[in-house]
Amino acid sequence: MTLDRRTGNLFGMTLPLTKLGRIWLVVLIALAGVLAVLILPPLRQPQGYHQFADQRSLLGIPNFLNVISNGGFLVVGLMGLSFLWEERAVGADTSFIESYERLPYIVFFVGVVFTCFGSAYYHWKPNDSTLVWDRLPMTVVFMSILAATIAERIDVKVGLRLLWPLVLAGVASVSCWRWSGNLWPYVAAQYFSIVLVGLIIVLFPPRYSRSADLLWVAGLYVLAKMAEALDARIWGATRFVSGHTLKHLIAALAVYCVLRMLVKRWGYVNEAWLALGQKVKAARL
Ligand SMILES: [Zn+2]
Questions:
Q1: Please, which residues have CB within 8 angstroms of residue 204's CB and are 6 or more apart in sequence?
Q2: How far is the CA of 198 from the centre of ligand 1 (A)?
Q3: How far is the CA of 123 from the centre of ligand 1 (A)?
Q4: Which of 51, 53, 58, 247 makes an SS bond possible with 232, Cβ 3.0 to 4.6 Å?
Q5: pTM (global) more than 0.90
Q6: Residue 204 scores a pLDDT above 90
């Protein structure tokens, strides 16, 4: 993909407004989201949510396929952590220009590993109190990706400084739902964080190559959500696998696409580094 580093975004469009103007736009939209969460009437967790189509037990494990399909998260989470552990060298020709930029991704893949255990625990015995352990690691995953996007598109130091406050906000959103019964903060933490990630990707030029991989991640995320919504229909049509089981597997595939992007990308520092990165990574693939 050809991309003008100074003015272009993922789609090669000339970016509107100055950088400061675009930052203000993101901040205002984020504040509007927070305000909406505060003023909307409370949203309750529908109890029908815990009724999944495939409730077959096997080997003494209730809801067998919905429980074990979380294994995909463990596999890609550990693959991600092992890649981050091995990828020691830093520079324009590697996946991280500065070593500390891998921190949001460490948090991301740790969150993915814990999603495996949290979600398996929930599906073993689906109710509101076990759902907390499914949702907690997921908010860590979404918030760390938001922090990484801010770091790689707007400002490295700002993104890294926001990492822990964002993760804390995600954890707080789940706690808020558990103790007050209002689901809006959690809905915002999961869906609004994705909206902000998309907005930042459209509005700001990347620090690394392989931005187009994020379209795969977005596509798989939408597909996973569709499978989740069609849980009973897919189960009815196949009588073998339910939409929710497929959702777990597709979501793990989306995480794999994030890892693939990290493995294959190189940094944009200046034209010379860009050329070096292209050459080294091309030789490695
Ligand atoms: Zn699930």
A1: 9, 15, 19, 22, 153, 154
A2: 24
A3: 7
A4: 53
A5: no
A6: no
